[in-house]
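Researcher: Let's run the pair from yesterday's discussion. Sequence first, then C-alpha cells, for each.
Model: Starting with the first of the pair.
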Amino acid sequence: MTRPAFYPSSQAATGSSSSVWEGYAYGFLGVLVFSLTLPMTRLAVAELEPLLVGLGRALVAAVPAVALLWLTRARRPNRQEWPGVILAAVGIVVGWPLASSFAMQTVPSSHGAVFNGLLPLSTAAFAALRSGERPSPAFWGWALVGAALVTAYALRQGHGTLALGDLWLLVAVVLGGMGYAEGARASRTLGGARTICWALAISAPVVAAPVGWMAAQANWPGAPVVLACAYLAFGSMFLGFFAWYRGLAVGGIARVGQVQLLQPFLTVVAAAMLFGESVETATFFFAAAVIVVIAGGRRAIVRTKK
C-alpha cells in the first residue's frame, strides 16, 4: 500500500541518493514559499498591528492544521518528539512571525532578506547543539564573519546606528533557526506535515484570546492586505512547512538547509518586482557575501560526538 505524503518517508533513514534529491526538491519548494513572507508581512503591517499579523497567521493556519490531524487520525507526538514540536511552535509559529512583523514596520523587506541570509547558519548551529555534532573552530569563525557582515550592512543602512527593526530581525533569525532545527528533528519520526500541524494546534489556545481582542479593535483592511494575510497563514505558516520539514527530514538538515541560501535573492527580487521596493546594488553585494559565509560555515560542521 502506498504511504500518503502526510506520513514520514522511510527513506530518511537510508541516506540514499534518491532521498537526498527528494529532500532538495521539497526544500526548494519550501524556500519558494518562504521567500515571499517578508514582502507580504510588510504589506500587512502597513494597515494592521504587527501583533495581530504575527499571531493572527498562526491562529488562522491552526484551523486547517487541526482539521487535517482529525481527518487523518494522526497520532500524537511521543515523549521524544514533544520537545521538538513545542520548540518549533515557540520558534516559527509565534517567535519568528512576531519578531519579523515588528521589524517590517521600520525596515524594507529587501533589508530583512540580508538578515535572513543568516537563518541557515542559525539552523545549523541549533542542529549541531541538539544532534551531538561538534562545530569546529572554523565553523564559529565563519559565524563571526557572517555576523560582522550583517552588522556592517545594518550600520551602513542606518548611517552608523542600528535601527530597532535590525534588532527584531536578529531575534527573528535566532528564533527561526531554533524552530527550523527542532521541527526538523521531530519530523524525522513524526513527519513534516504532522510536526507543523501539532505545533499550530498547541499554539492556537495561547494566541486565540489576544488575536480575538485585537481583531475586534482593528479596522477592516483592503483586499491586498487580506490577500497578504491569507498568504502568510496558508502559505508561509502552513503549506510551506509541509515541504520544508519533509525536505530536511528526508535529505538531512545540513544538506537540504543549504537550499535556503537562495532565499535572500528570491526575497529581494520579489520585493522589487511585486511591490516596487528600490533595491540598491549594495544589498545584492551583502546578500552574496552572506551566502558565501554561510556556505563556508556549512562545510565546517564535520565532527560528531561519540
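Model: Moving on to the second of the pair.
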Amino acid sequence: MPQAPAPPAATEPRVAPPELFDAVDIARAAAVEEAADELGRAAAVAAVGLHLGAGAEDDGSVTHSFVAELPGYRGWRWAVTVASAGPSEPATVSESVLLPGDTAIVAPTWVPWDQRVRPGDLKPGDLLPPPADDPRLVPGYVDSGDPAVEELAGEVGLGREQVLSADGRAAAADRWQQGDRGPAAELARAAPASCGTCGFMLPIAGSLRGVFGVCANGSAPADGQVVAVGFGCGAHSSVTETGGSPVYVSALVYDDGVDLEPVGSH
C-alpha cells in the first residue's frame, strides 16, 4: 500500500543579518525621500523624527520606524523595510510607508451605504430596495415555514411576491427582544406586570404570535408599537386606582418633653 506523502515542513523564519539593524541612516534617507514627494526636500528632513527602533521580519528583512513629525499625523510613524542578499551584502530599501500607531487618529472602517441606514433615516420619497438574495426574504411561492402565511395564501389563491424567511423572522425577533420594547428595558423592569397579561396587547399573526404583540393603549408609551410579551409599563390593564392623596404628607409630631420659655422673660 503506498505511503501518504509527508506534509511539507513549516518554513522557518530567516535570520536577519546584523547589518540591517545598523542601517538606520539608509532607512532614514528613504523616509525623507518618501516625504519629499509631497513636502519638498527641506520640509521632508524635519518630517522624519526620532528613530523608534527596528524589528525583524519573517523573510529576513528588518523594518525601521521613525516618528512622523507631520501636522495632523500625531501618533503616526514612518516604516522603512531594508533587506540584503545575505551577510556582508549591502542593505537595500524594500518599502517605505507611513503607518498609524496605537494612538493615531484614523478614519473609521468603511461601511457600505446599504448597511449604514438606520431606523428613522428614511424620509418621504426615499427608496431602500432590499439587497439581492436577501436571506430575510423568500419568494412567495416557496414554503415560508409560517403556518399563518401559508393559510392565507391558500385562502385567496395567491401569495405575496416575497415573504419573510426563517432567518428574517429570527432576526426580527432578536431585534425586538433586545430593543426598547423588550423584557430587559428599564421601563419593563419597573412595571407591575408584563404585556403578556395585559388586556391592551393585540397578539400579532403568524409564528411570532406567542412572543410579540402590538400595544393598543393610547395612554401607554408603546401605543401602536410591537412589544414583547415580557415587556411592560405602568399602564397595564390590571393596575388599580389607589385611594388617598398621591402626595406624601409627613405625620404630625407632638413633643411634650420640651419646656417652652416665653420671649422677653430675661
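Researcher: Give me one sentence on the second I can quote.
Model: Helices lie at 18-21, 24-39, 41-47, 113-116, 147-156, 166-178, 186-189.
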